[in-house]
Amino acid sequence: MSPTLASAPGSCCFTGVKHTGTPVGRVEDLGGIPTYISDPPAATQKVILFLADVWSPLYLNNKLIQDYFASCGYIVLGPDYFFGDSVPNHDGPDRQAWIDSSRKPAIDAFPAWLDAVKEKYGRENTKYCAVGYCFGAPFVMDLCSDGSVVAGALAHPAFLDEDHFEKLDGPLLLSCAEEDHTFPLASRRRAEDIMVARKSTYHFQVFSGVKHGFAVRCDLAIDTQRWAKEESARGIVSWFDRFTV
């Protein structure tokens, strides 16, 4: 088996601060998966696939992030591959069992969803990007390995091994916390070593003073955390802009 670089979600994936705001997107069925859809101010052929953490794309914080990406000129699509049964529904020991049982249904449902997305939004001229938070990271790595997207981004990833980086074939941004039990420093450096050896196109953001989950559930009342969260999102947009011109 390929050595693990980013492990399964842990205790700090289950905590955080709920933000405030009014989402502007809507939920529609795409390929059998409820999907949060946030539209940009003007018509575009640029799409971000938003592969959420264990809180799902329908969690308020994630809706607001998707709306931000949309405001920057992208159609944003967030599949709820938990089918309404995300981590807020689970407490205590049940949470780990839920994570273990939720992966296969999500993985199995994803190809039909992706096919439905490309049927609706275009296969030839549309430029797709993908961002994955924690649980969503391996979906992004697979999309970046088979040419399905023009660029990918990860924020505090989970469920990654060396093979994901050995197979990487597209541009990848990694938005990382200085302190991350799931993707620690040694793993981050090993991932970089692999990408350097393969001459991959990549970029790291590494933020001090924050932990795993900062890009979604940080405390916005703390300046360091707020800036890191907002700069992570800005950096992801800038990265995608580079490859969708």
UniProtKB/TrEMBL annotation:
<dbReference type="InterPro" id="IPR029058">
    <property type="entry name" value="AB_hydrolase_fold"/>
</dbReference>
<protein>
    <submittedName>
        <fullName>Alpha/Beta hydrolase protein</fullName>
    </submittedName>
</protein>
<keyword id="KW-0378">Hydrolase</keyword>
<dbReference type="Pfam" id="PF01738">
    <property type="entry name" value="DLH"/>
</dbReference>
<dbReference type="GO" id="GO:0016787">
    <property type="term" value="F:hydrolase activity"/>
</dbReference>
<dbReference type="InterPro" id="IPR002925">
    <property type="entry name" value="Dienelactn_hydro"/>
</dbReference>
<feature type="domain" description="Dienelactone hydrolase">
    <location>
        <begin position="33"/>
        <end position="243"/>
    </location>
</feature>
